[in-house]
Amino acid sequence: MENILVFHSEKEVRFGKLLRYIIPAYLTSLFNTVYTIIDGIFVSAYVGTDALAAINIVYPIVNVLTGIALIFATGGSAVCALHIGGNRKKEASRSFSVSVTASVLLGSLVSLGVLLNLSGILNLLGATSLTMADCRIYALWWLWGTPVVIGKELFTYFIRVDGAPAYSLATALFGGVLNIVLDYILIGCFRMGLLGAALATMLGMLLSFGMGIYYFLRKRKVLLFTLHGLSRREAVRCMINGASEFVDQLAIAVTTIVFNRTALGIAGEDGVAAVSIIMYLQFLFIGVYFGFSMGIAPPLGYAYGDKKEDVCRILERYAYRFFAIAPFIIYTLTYFFAPLSVSCFAPSASPVFSLAVFGMRIYGLGFLFAGINIFSAIRMMAYGKGHFSGMITFLRSFALLLLFLVLLPQIWGMDGIWLAVPAAEFLTVFVSFLFFKINP
Questions:
Q1: DSSP class of residue 350?
Q2: What count of other Cβ atoms lies within 10 Å of the Cβ of residue 103?
Q3: N or C: which end of the chain has fewer CB within 10 A?
Q4: Would you say 392 and 377 are in contact if contact means Cβ atoms under 8 Å apart?
Q5: Which residues touch 373 (CB under 8 Å, ≥6 apart)?
Q6: Measured between alpha carbons, how far is 215 from 203 in angstroms, rounded to an integer?
């Protein structure tokens, strides 16, 4: 087996070599975020903020599908890294294969269930007579394209852990560029509205998906897809290890509903549109944390699987330095560039603009604490301790956030909505610091 361990000993640890994993992972996260934002900009500019609100209403369905992909993509790829580090090629391939098979089957079943009850589910998510038609169009394409949606996400992670982070980046880059080009053609030129946005997204994902299939047919290094020896036990192991990412996506789905309904009650459709804009923009900043953490995760997993805990400690120290500086830079950018960022989605004279700018500056306080929470969760997942990872994510993304979304708007209205995320992230930091003391 080709040895793709990044560091064999403590002396080999070099930040420059580590960047070979971190930079592609960060750029992949960044590009995925940028493409999503550009989708929103085209929809807002050519269709309107009500259509943007419709996308946000549908996104809990997208979050569930993405969560199914990520629970196996992150959990399964981390298990694969441990096997690769321990020179267990067959076990790594089985973890890869069972993750692909189980996620596609589970995702397809969930999509079928949603399709059979789509109108009722959209009503539950907050669709109104003004947004229902757009919601149906956008949701249907995501549901029909479920295998591609899940497969694209899986391949991004497993190609990276197979030792080809640059190719993983290329799949995201080419798919995203196609998405942008088709956004311009279908939404901007042909004025196809949300149908054009959905088609552009799906065709971009299809290209990334096709590149992933090509990689594992022709260019793979270690991982081989097989149906031999697959077991429910291995599937459950991958699911448990990646539980934090599913919890995160499910929490986003639930809290998005609460965000939308609360904002709708306080500020009407303008409030929902402002929430939608901030949800788009947050990924641009949070993506820095996810990209760094996901980039350092495979080297951590390789080292731990190879029982090189001294290497793990050095890699962690690099991460601590990064998260001691980056949050302050990110919040500064968030505060000063909020008007420029929001102006991409809403005219400066509109009530949506003022709501979103003010909200972004308060909401962005959460970025000061989110990075260390995200790294803490991904660190434990890289070591195969997904239950710790799930606890952190459950607190920051669901339990505390939902609590503050219920309580704070009753006191401060829309300001309470924006404060919910900073409050949840701040309290979760104490749990993250506790887990940093737990060595793998």
A1: S
A2: 27
A3: N
A4: yes
A5: 392, 396, 425, 428, 429, 432
A6: 19
